[in-house]
Amino acid sequence: MKVYQTNEIRNITVIGNSGAGKTTLVEAMLYEGGVISRRGDVKSKNTASDYNLVEQEYGNSIHPTVLYTEFEGCKLNIIDTPGMDDFVGGVIPALSVAATGLLVFNAVNGVEVGTDIANRNAEKFNKPLIFVINHLDHETSNWDNTIDMAKTTFGNKLAIIQYPVNPGVGYNAVIDVLKMKMLKWAPTGGKPEILDIPASEADKAEEYHNNLVEMAAENDEQLMELFFEQGSLNEDEMKKGIKLGMLARGLYPVFCTCAAHDMGIRRLMEFICNVAPNPGELAPVETIDGKKIKMDVNGPTSIFVFKTALEQHVGEVTYFKVISGTLKEGMDLINTAKNSKERISQIFAVAGKNRTKVPEMQAGDIGATVKLKEVKHNHTLCDKDAEITFPPLKYPNPRYSTAVKAVNESDEEKMGEYLQRLAEEDPSYKIEYSKELKQILIHGQGEYHLNTLKWYFDNVFKIEIQFLAPKIPYRETITKVAQADYRHKKQSGGAGQFGEVHMVIEPFEEGMPNPDMYKIDGKEMKVSLRGTDSYDLPWGGKLVFCNCIVGGSIDARFHPAILKGIMEKMEEGPLTGSYARDIRVCIYDGKMHPVDSNEISFRLAGRNAFSQAFKKAGAKILEPIYDVEVLVPADRLGDVMSDLQGRRAIIMGMNSEKGFEKLTAKVPLKEMNKYSTTLSSISQGRAMFSMKFSNYEKVPAEVQDELLKAYEATQTED
Predict the structure, then answer these.
(1) Domain boundary among 374, 408, 423
(2) Cβ distance 433 to 413 under 8 Å?
(3) Are residues 509 and 547 in the same domain?
(4) Nearest 5°: phi and psi at 491?
(5) Which pLDDT tens digit goes with each residue over 84-139?
(6) Considering its fold, how many domains does the chain have in total?
(7) What is the per-residue pLDDT across 576-594, written as a single tens digit (0 to 9) for each?
(8) Most exposed among 100, 148, 612, 672, judged by the fewest C-beta atoms under 10 Å?
(9) What's 697's DSSP letter?
(10) From the CA atom positions of the chain, what is the Rg in Å?
């Protein structure tokens, strides 16, 4: 294939709800461009996209697939993305390197939650969108309803380029109000017959055409003047205005397709080639140090790695976008993340699992290479003296977590290696070894997302793993003042151990006065503060250590040992073994022995005195509370709210947003286990949610009792 210039390249990502027909649309685009000789279909498991075994088994896109096609002198780089929100990790890199998004609608369902999510993701990257209304041949397709829903969601930005003449069974024609012609297809689709608009559609077509002219004119002063002078614009003038509107995200061109029968695909591709922006028309890409890099072939060579994948018989495949300059075979570049040299031995244009070798790629192009040494997702490669590093892509916070362990202990190490590999391929997975919970945790976007990971272990890595409920990272604290003394004494021949510590503990709050007087068991006790040390705890909250010892009853050299003993118990709270927080400790007296006192004696005395005081201080367990936001269709709001209330949620607010109801609530983390699955069931897959940590709050008394009993049982077992 030829080397395409920057102005001949169009970078497209296909986004939308699962079931909208994105993969089928891409298949038709590759067929029309001659990259494939026959169209596959999802059910037959023979599409250029969705070629991974897991995708074929599930019948859904799981990974973003990089493809290309050629049409009318342009190279269209296309990235087919998953439609399920669980796999948003594939949508983000696709949007980052694309210039335009094709937002695909299912004409049966109209605007779905996934449609809105896709637009929100595109908005974050400021990407222009083309709306593609698909499945217009379905017996229950509803063009009018889809458009009405889209207007409710996206406002008055819909620029209708086409509308269907006969949606439903037998669909085969549209009115194109940009060309002012009727396009009609044979049952096999492909190239349409171009006809005059029938008289029955003339008035409607004229109305849509005039609306389109006005929307195009609004984006440029010269066009607006022409419009006022002439009363209309020609096709080229309209294309110019539409492009400007797209770039400002103030206009969304609307096209009609039946991807399964290859209807409307050529006209859509023609529009992409003629109107969609090429990479050189986009704003420069900013580096981490604020430099602006224009997608210009004359600049230094720089590429950004947006995806890596390990493929059987090939090894690691590195997917990149050429940001500036020209990438050539045999070129040596610097990996700025590792400060190491990498040789680009081969360059490929990619159509799913099929790759076409090319000698070079110019600024704006998307391709792949293999056999790089240390290159990973989010890395920048550039000329030796260019000093270019692009910022890493950011992924949403996880919404679902599970603990994992290998069924056979001998597989633990291999399991860890494979988990890291999968997290490199899909950065929306987060792998964590929790010292606190003593579990390996996998964080992801939903149960489906994590089940896909398990599929790889079952079918590719052949390692048996099991998912376990993750433990909850509770915290412990106190609610009142308490006092305790502890003497550690041990004599076993030779030097013994002796240390005695008297302390008072109390709840810590920012801004509280220094300790002066305590009332314990009805008696007042005065203390003299000699020094205060405050410690921000790694797990949140504080420990404040007050030295109130007078008369040298305990040498200052033993104070660190007492503190260490207290901190040990803070790391393993007396109630449930959870971390403790927000406590002030006042050491006011004690005893030592001239021979037997040592650091270990005072560490143990401090630890045990703290434990005793803690249990007398109205100890409470704190649980993590999360801010949860649910976007749900109005007809499912009541069910979702009822379910949340059953999870001890506090509803914080409700409001309508773009055709959906947005529900905000505070929910204990314990109650959010497998929520994504439940929400999908309640809403028939039409709702989505996000969650982020808010704060810690005291658990209800009955929950605390349950936790204490459960912890005591484990201690007995041990």
Answers:
(1) 374
(2) no
(3) yes
(4) -130, 115
(5) 888 999 999 999 999 999 999 999 999 988 898 899 899 999 999 999 999 999 99
(6) 5
(7) 889 999 999 999 999 999 8
(8) 148
(9) E
(10) 32
